[in-house]
Amino acid sequence: MKVSLIMLVAVGVLFAAGVTLLLERTLTRVLLGVILLGNGANVLILSTAMPGDPPIVGAAAPGEMTDPLPQAMILTAIVITLGMTAFLLALAYRSWRLVGHDEVQDDIEDRRIMAMAERDEGSDAADADADADDADRDVTRAVHP
Amino acid sequence: MTWLVPLPVVMPLLGAAVTLLMFRRPRIQRVVSVGVLTATLAAAVALLVLSRSGPLVAPVGGWPAPVGIVLVADQLAALMLVVSAAVTLCVLVYSIGQGVADGERAAPLAIYHPTYLILTAGITNAFLSGDLFNLYVGFEILLAASYVLITLGGTETRVRAGTTYVVVSLLSSVIFLAGIGLVYAATGTLNLAQLVSRLDALPDSVRLLLQGILLLAFGIKAAVFPLSAWLPDSYPTAPAPVTAVFAGLLTKVGVYAIIRTETLLFPGGRVADVLTVAALATLVVGILGAVAQSDIKRMLSFTLVSHIGYLLFGVGLASRAGIAAAVFYTVHHIVILTTLFLVAGLIERRGGTTAVDQLGGLARTTPLLGVLFFIPAFNLAGIPPFSGFLGKLGLVRAGIQDGRPLAYVLVAGAMLTSLLTLYAIGRVWNLAFWRSPVGTSASAPPRSTPRMMVAATAALVAAGVALTLIAGPLYELTDTAAGDLLARHPYVRAVFPGGAP
Lengths: 145, 501
Known about the structure:
Chain A is an all-alpha fold. Helices cover 70% and strands 0% of the residues of chain A. The model of chain A is unreliable at 129-145 (pLDDT under 50). Chain B has a two-stranded antiparallel ribbon. Classes of the chains: A mainly alpha, B mainly alpha. At the A-B interface, helix 2, helix 3, helix 4 and helix 5 of A face helix 5, helix 6 and helix 17 of B.
């Protein structure tokens, strides 16, 4: 099977640009990255079919036809990417409405637990507190039977 | 009886259409959703019984196999269907109970029902798919529905958590799509049964590349370490029933895809050792994360990641005993994790929070909740005689049978994880249930707990216990499924009775 070099270079460029954009914090850029990646994958699938005549029975000899299956798959993938793009846009807009920007934030709980670990107040400390509480109660019970 | 095969996909899709049309009539929506999922469960059970005598194959659209897409219900797929249908039905009843109690404010039910049914259709489609591209479509259906469910209501935290989830899932989908393109370029087909012989004919290096790409895509979906960081950040913020069904089923669809491709398409490759090491890392890193958490939902999310390692353990061994144990453990894990997240939802209603340092004395104030948490939690930790123990026992035995040093390391890691799970679960039990009640001002006042939610949770707890009671026959079933998977020819012969073209 012969593959066009231009197609492969296009796939490479689309994937590289897509990954670069995906590493950004702004959701709009991430969205552009996702679109580029999706198109890269589509071109990759397209390049698996040899160029040829349209695959219509009667219009071309079966040996000369191009493979229609990759095109059918791309069509499905394009529809899916379209839906996802619309959803991500809505998400970015919602984020902008709520917090005034569309930057992807760190997880709050992750930060809290990291801060706790730095102050050395991890889960063991919480357990120790609970044990201390129990001990206190035992003491009170002993004093006031 | 092949007309039964597409039903678990078609019925939820039609149900979704009907519930979407009836968005102003919540009562009809509820009846339709419950009815559809009950029918799906019945169809799945029928498929499980029928597939004992060989896989059932349904060509979609009437086109014969290599041209058209086929749906294949073998023992593994049918078993997964039964479990997922049962779990989705229970979670639906739970969410209806919650919705009736809270009204439209908490969850916009008009969208919830159709989306939930589409999620179910995506899951069943992925399980039944006999074609790599149809598997991709199944994944996309369930992911699209899950994007909507995880951002339900569109609050700030849900949008933040949902963004991470959506972007990571989109990336894994693109990788999967690129993998499909490369598989098609190398073999000229995407039919799983036809791929078997064509992939075998490829040079080892090409096979390894294709296997690597597909594993990467499925690894993200299944939350295998180091591709698991997205899960604990995104799952806990969603509404309780949504988190429950995600935790129980979505990662398992990824695991199912790994089992299917590793056994049917790429058996005996060099990747098995990589999978084994990934399993070990997932087990240990996941559970260490769980130990550090102070929120029940996040603790459970990390445990979920960790226990994916058990499933990979069996797949990595690539022996009959290993895969049988992995499938058994998958069934156990789906039921138990879903139950625990539903219980976490009940705890949140009762205590106003799921942070263990603000909870206390729940065992005294609500003994029923204590029982509902205790049974699945200790089942998860693998206390005999529960199914968690039996699954782990099967995996450990398969590891020892294997005999390689790596397998022994993995067995040790599995034991350690089991102990640490017990520690993490025990900590939650001690702090939230066992100690005396603590008066806190921060938590919200307790809300009423509808009977329906408790009943749905209790039904799943009972299902978890039932897994222990029927463990013998179930293990036999997973053993035959594993045998069929490793033999490969039952699947191929069912799709192509006259030999693969």
